[in-house]
Amino acid sequence: MSKALVCPCEDVTVEDVEHAFARGFTDMESIKRYTGFGTGICQGKSCMGAVARLIHQSKARPPAGIAPFTPRTPLFPTELSVLATAPFDVQKAPVGSTPREVHLGALALRSELPLPARAKVVIIGGGIMGLALAWNLVLRGETDVVVLEKGYLLAGASGRNGGGVRMQWGTPSMIALAKRSIELMKSFARDMGINIWLRQGGYLFLATSKEVAHRLEANQKLHNAHGVPTEILTADGAREIVPELTCKNVVAAAWNPEDGVIFPWPFLWGYAQAATRRGVRVETFTDVTGFEISGGQIRKVKTDRGDIACETVVLAAGAWSPEVAAKAGIRLPNEPHRHEICSTEPLKPFLGPLVSVLDSGLYFSQSMRGEIVGGMGDPKEPAGLNLGSTLRFLSRYARALTEQLPILGRVKVLRQWAGCYDVTPDNSPILGRTPGLPNLLQMSGFVGHGFMMAPAVAERMAAWMTEADNTDELFTRFNLQRFAEGRLERENMIIG
Ligand SMILES: Cc1cc2nc3c(=O)[nH]c(=O)nc-3n(C[C@H](O)[C@H](O)[C@H](O)COP(=O)(O)OP(=O)(O)OC[C@H]3O[C@@H](n4cnc5c(N)ncnc54)[C@H](O)[C@@H]3O)c2cc1C
Predict the structure, then answer these.
(1) pTM of this structure
(2) Is the beta carbon of 445 within 6 A of some atom in ligand 1?
(3) Buried-most residue among 60, 139, 234, 315 (CB within 10 A)?
(4) Is the CATH number 1.10.10.1100 carried by domain 5-69?
């Protein structure tokens, strides 16, 4: 077998790239994610040209559609201990809107095939919510479904998250959804034919204040009552799980060994591939630009590739949902908030759980490839659809991380990126019908935890949509109407 290498860092061959083409991934961002090229120590500097040439040779894209992937900072691999010395002003809001996301809204990447003129269900947003729903509709016999995605698959938060999946929540509804989701994740490889690298290494929450410690203790009782085996530990107990932790200022910890992490990208591909195999159209690089509304119903979804007449529209556009809803005259209370995240060079496996200091919003885990992947919310971050990266984040994160795990000081950060949390006033999702526009269904507002909720939410939503007598309380408890009624469903286990 020939082994013509394209990306020596990640051992990606010409055949791997051709395999990506065969799977329909012909834009640079998607090929990068599908093969892993450009994610190693050279950050794509030595391999992007070769991939561009392969796209050109294969005629998979016209020359105008061969754009580089978005360059990622830091410009060269940099040690965490060095990043921790970078100065920043704690009082000032973060700035930074570079790099510009090259492939979002790229016209040259659109399919030349026409969109279907009509579909029973149009789902706006090809993130985990939209795709998991499409698949669950298929399971219930509904295949006349079109998913519209303005970028590449994984362009939204679903391609930019930490992959954490946990049952440690502050409300019975979220605990039940997370438990069911993790159950579905366990059989995902068998059911969907793709490995999502689920590793149940646990979640270790650290509290550095009494207030957060009390919250962890109260939630532990709730967890145990719902069959989640969370334990409260001392700092010494936490160090028994991760001996390398300093546990500086830690007053208590919460530990559930059944939580874990998955690798986000195959999770999304699994749903997309299974749904398209059964007839669902997943249309990438297709921007929803408006709606045709008459008689209190959406009649058509308008896009930059034409209109689609439909019976039902599902709004699953994540942090972009308020922007899309506004095109139908609907005001959503969600606000997008940038969350930055980064990944280091790979290390030998040593870190079992995902660790989070709930007070500061620091979280980190070790991926199956060995990288330390983590982030930290910034209280000064203003609302806005900002996907840029900052040195301020790297500095804050490096300080907080090396304070708890000093052995990582010499480890280099390879890539940083950002996504948007889709934040609602009560940190709970918006699900169900839209007052005044009943055939517009809401499926957004999943803050920083939609990834792990998607399998269970989509399963229940597909049942609710297709069964005439289904009155699932999820779709009244979390409906849009609750904000007008002052009926908030507050969730208190938000990281960051
Ligand atoms: C840094 C970070 C870390 C996170 N960590 C975790 C974690 O560990 N665990 C977890 O469960 N969750 C995590 N999350 C949250 C999680 O990623 C999201 O809740 C989840 O991915 C939301 O999925 P979605 O389908 O609603 O939105 P998205 O994945 O954002 O998908 C929405 C899609 O809609 C598309 N769209 C927008 N406007 C239009 C339009 N006009 N026309 C067509 N398409 C449009 C967008 O391009 C996007 O792809 C994290 C998020 C971030 C940012």
Answers:
(1) 0.96
(2) no
(3) 315
(4) yes
